[in-house]
Specification:
- The complex is a heterodimer of chains A (about 350) and B (about 325).
- Chain A is mostly helical.
- Chain A has two domains: about 20-75, no CATH class; about 95-335, MetI-like (MetI-like fold, Orthogonal Bundle).
- Chain A has 13 helices and no strands.
- In chain A, helix 5 (about 85-120) packs across helix 9 (about 195-235), helix 5 packs antiparallel against helix 11 (about 250-285) and helix 12 (about 290-300) packs antiparallel against helix 13.
- The mean pLDDT of chain A is about 80.
- Chain B has one domain: MetI-like fold, CATH 1.10.3720.10.
- Chain B has helices at about 1-15, 20-25, 35-45, 45-70, 100-140, 140-155, 160-170, 175-185, 185-200, 205-210, 215-250, 265-275, 280-305.
- The chains are: A mainly alpha (about 350), B mainly alpha (about 325).
- The interface of A and B includes residues 26, 31, 140 and 278 of A.
Chain lengths: ~350, ~325
């Protein structure tokens, strides 16, 4: 097992290395000069030359790449061209917002998807099953931003029951320490317990709509997979045996069916994480959510090279790690799988 | 079954459309793979609905913008925010905040989306088949190298790469959007073709072709590719839905196709701006997008069942 993990970790290195070259080459091959982009069209030639020198853009490309890579290995992911802030610091500051949103979306998708899938499996080929299938088809087919806008319209504009955007009511003036709003609500100094509860509830209320929008596609996929998996396992001989020896349905469900039906579900949950990161970009834009996704979109628009390079690299790293964790979780859940 | 009846209507329609031979073929016990596949497809009622919807959408997207020309970008402020009215045949969906005809714009946007969807999928299929065929046919080190490349591309956050390519190489350019989606999306098709080729390579008919002295190219193109197409056709159909959504998303984030050109995505961006005054503007592009995606998914599901030779034709 340890050997397998080490091998997978080592296998990720060439991928990341190759990716860093691709990203680096990519960005330097594009038309347009970053110095001009930063200073604007009306900057003097001299200012642009100074800026180019400051940014190291006049060095040969291989030198620039080696500098960049050396920086990466020391944890220096470069600085933003726009505000000169270190990329890593800004990423870490914003990342919790994205994680909070992603976790909420995942809780929604798993929390609703698995029961819904089991429900559909129990009534397989009858009308509840059909209804769930139609629902999950719709869930997959509605693009995140269309759903986001629709939810905003229904719940924020028309019914006015939930806030339309941002992470927390600005009037509360919450101190962001961890940048997990739901944690910071409790950490805020000088608030009474009731105020903390109010802030927490407000944070949750802001989370609901974006989490549903972001979680809809994983929800649909998890529902489908759970349904298919439960139906398949329920037809196994050992389930019939369990039923024949008189076990309660509840026990058959928990001990015999779900234990085995979990496997494909876990895999699919893991596979959704990459999609969630992409979906987070869109969700964050629709709901004015101050996370990594919006930042990266802004950075791309501003041609903020290091921000783009580094965040995509970090995302790829997260993506690889998540896949590894899923594979390991898979091995734990299924003793029949041996990783040599 | 109601579903079967529904499915048979278009089957009759195609019979009427100048294919007199179909009746004869139906009487003979021998039917080709593709004839069987078509029959199975027609029995899949949702797939047929998908096909009809897609056909209507494609026809609309081809015909209306040709007639209306550049009207989709025409603004007339005097008509701004004119509400939708079925009584007005020229603007059944009304006018938006700067007086653009919503219906004409919507159909133009549909055209853009379908164009991007179909073109991107063409790139995906061509690149995927080429890489997959080479990897599966040649095998060995070449196969290994190409499949590692696939692994690398698959391990990347694909949406970000597409956004980046589009933003850096030409925001607002449909061709760049198409190429970007194609470059990132070919891996699934390549894997499918490779898997088919690995097993086809060992089959008797390929051995026979080789024994008869057929060259590599002939074996690949004439013998193996037709047999490997089924999963690719399914993946391509489903890929249309994905590509359309990616394009709309890019345009929504204002990296894709930008006004005055019309795209379902940028119509939604515009609608978001006028959320409170004309919320209904979200509905049209949103529903159109969902319709395209659903039609393509249903067709893909139907094709998956139809192209699987183990599925039997219901009589």
């Amino acid at each position: 097992m340890t050997k397998y993990i080490v091998r997978r970790l080592l296998g990720a290195i060439p991928v990341l290395f190759g990716l860093s070259i691709v990203l680096f080459a990519f960005i330097h091959l594009i038309p347009g000069d970053p110095a001009t982009a930063i200073l604007g069209q009306h900057a003097t030639a001299q200012r642009i030359a100074e800026m180019r020198e400051y940014l190291g853009l006049d060095d040969p490309l291989p030198v620039q790449y080696v500098d960049y890579l050396a920086g990466l290995l020391q944890g220096d992911f470069g600085r933003s061209f726009i505000n000169n802030q270190p990329v890593l610091g800004e990423f870490l500051r914003r990342f919790p917002a994205t994680v909070e949103l992603t976790i909420a979306a995942m809780i929604f998708a798993v929390g609703v998807g698995i029961p819904l899938g089991r429900f559909a499996a129990r009534y397989a080929q009858r009308w509840p099953d059909g209804a769930v299938t139609v629902l999950s088809l719709l869930g997959i087919s509605i693009p995140v931003f269309v759903l986001g806008l629709t939810l905003q319209y229904i719940f924020a504009v028309q019914l006015k029951v939930l806030p339309a955007s941002s992470r927390i009511d600005a009037r509360l003036q919450l101190d962001l320490q961890t940048n997990f709003v739901l944690i910071d609500a409790w950490l805020h100094a000088g608030w009474t317990f009731d105020e903390k509860v109010d802030a927490f509830v407000d944070g949750v209320r802001h989370l609901v709509l974006p989490a549903i929008a972001l979680g809809s596609i994983p929800l649909a996929i998890i529902t489908r997979i759970t349904r298919a998996s439960v139906i398949e396992v329920a037809n196994e001989d050992y389930v019939r045996t369990a039923r024949a020896k008189g076990l309660t349905e509840r026990r058959i469900d928990g001990r015999h069916i779900m234990r085995n039906a979990w496997l494909p579900v876990v895999t699919v949950i893991g596979l959704q994480v990459g999609g969630l990161l992409a979906g987070a970009v869109i969700t964050e834009t629709v709901f004015a959510w101050n996370g990594v996704g919006r930042w990266i979109v802004d950075a791309i628009g501003n041609r903020d090279y290091f921000v783009v390079q580094s965040t995509i690299l970090i995302f790829a790293l997260i993506f690889l790690m998540v896949n590894l964790i899923v594979d390991i979780a898979y091995a734990f859940l299924n003793p029949r799988i041996r990783y040599a | 079954m109601e579903g079967t009846q529904l499915g048979q209507i278009p089957a009759k329609a195609t019979t009427g459309a100048g294919q007199g031979a179909v009746d004869e073929v139906d009487l003979t016990p021998v039917r080709t793979y593709w004839q069987l596949a078509r029959q199975r497809f027609m029995q899949h009622s949702l797939a047929v609905v998908g096909l009809i919807v897609m056909a209507i959408l494609v026809t609309l997207a081809l015909v209306v913008p040709t007639i209306t020309g550049s009207l989709y970008a025409k603004t007339s402020l005097s008509l701004a925010n004119h509400p939708p009215s079925l009584l007005n045949p020229f603007a059944p969906l009304g006018y938006d905040s700067i007086g653009m005809n919503v219906f004409i714009r919507l159909v133009k946007a549909l055209q853009t989306s379908l164009f991007v969807g179909f073109s991107a999928v063409s790139i995906i299929v061509v690149v995927g088949i080429t890489v997959g065929a080479i990897a599966g046919y040649v095998g060995g080190a070449v196969d290994n190298l190409l499949m590692r490349l696939v692994d690398v591309v698959l391990s990347l956050p694909s949406f970000f790469l597409i956004v980046m390519m589009v933003a850096l190489f030409g925001t607002g350019n449909a061709i760049v959007v198409i190429v970007a989606i194609g470059i990132v999306g070919w891996t699934t098709a390549a894997r499918l073709v490779r898997a088919e080729f690995l097993s086809l390579r060992e089959t008797d008919f390929v051995q026979a072709a080789r024994a008869l002295g057929a060259g590599d190219r002939r074996i690949i193109v004439r013998h193996m590719l037709p047999a490997a197409m089924a999963p690719v056709v399914v993946a391509a159909t489903l890929g249309i839905a994905d590509s359309v959504v990616v394009e709309a998303t890019l345009s929504f984030l204002s990296f894709g196709i930008s006004p005055p050109e019309a795209s379902l995505g940028n119509m939604l961006t515009n609608a978001q701006e006028f959320f409170y005054r004309q919320p209904i503007l979200i509905l049209y592009p949103g529903l159109t997008l969902i319709l395209v995606v659903l039609a393509a998914s249903f067709m893909g599901d139907g094709l998956r069942d139809a192209l699987d030779p183990r599925q039997r034709v219901r009589k």
